[in-house]
Amino acid sequence: MTGVITDPAFWWVALPAVLLLGLSKSGFASGMGSLATPLLAVAMPVPQAAAVMLPLLAVADAMALWSLRRSLDRAVLRQLLPAGLAGIVIGWLSFGLLPGHVVAGIVGVITLLFLAQQLVWPPRADAPLPGHGQTATLALLSGYTSFVAHGGGPPIAMALLPRRMEPLAYAGTSAVFFATINLAKWVPYALLGLFDARNLATSAVLVPVAAGGVILGVWATRRVSTRWFYRLVQLGMLLTGLKLLMDGIWPHG
């Protein structure tokens, strides 16, 4: 079937979901972008929602990289990227073996437990930074959940939050990581048959919404205080964790 998706229920969730995706790619409301695919999954199967989202992620990634190209932590990226790409490979090889709602539920529980620990027992200012093994494990989980449902945001937030980075450094490091991870998905997604003309046409219509979200988010990230930036990150993790947990308990379809 050609042409764009015409189901009104899809567009009611797609427009806010894609705007949220763009905002999160800028670093502003970081973590909330993982809500985009679960929101779309209200109106369509998860694999189709992931296929519609991937071209939009590519556009948002490119814009975020250009805007934040001078703000990143290369040392952290060297720990994140190899494990994240390994997670993509694992997700590809095991695609369909573990139901998407099970993955969502697991990530939701981990996210909420981490956030509770951060809020109830906040780390001391002199607490040691996450080690290489912990960082790599979180990146592996991020790559895997990103492949399954573009839900890799919470694990990366867990890896970066304890480092207390400046907002632009946090945003730039996240932007490079996810741009690389999302680029690595294209061939596996194509080989799995997740792309079709209708999904791609629908993605094309939504590109201006994603781009607008990135522009608005970069503007806000450059102006928000560090304190409020991290409060927004935590809010994003809370909402994402709750949504993923709900999807795990009450799967759609």
TrEMBL record:
Organism: Sphaerotilus mobilis
One GO cellular component, as annotated: plasma membrane
Main localisation: membrane
Keyword Iron: no
Mode of membrane association: Multi-pass membrane protein
Cellular compartments annotated: Cell membrane
UniProt KW Membrane keyword: yes
Matches recorded under PANTHER family: MEMBRANE TRANSPORTER PROTEIN, TRANSMEMBRANE PROTEIN YFCA
Alphabetical UniProt keywords: Cell membrane, Membrane, Transmembrane, Transmembrane helix, Transport
Name of the protein described by the UniProt record: Probable membrane transporter protein
Signal peptide extent: none
Family as reported in the entry's similarity comment: Belongs to the 4-toluene sulfonate uptake permease (TSUP) (TC 2.A.102) family.
Pfam families: TauE
Residue ranges crossing the lipid bilayer per the database entry: 51-68, 168-188, 200-221, 228-246
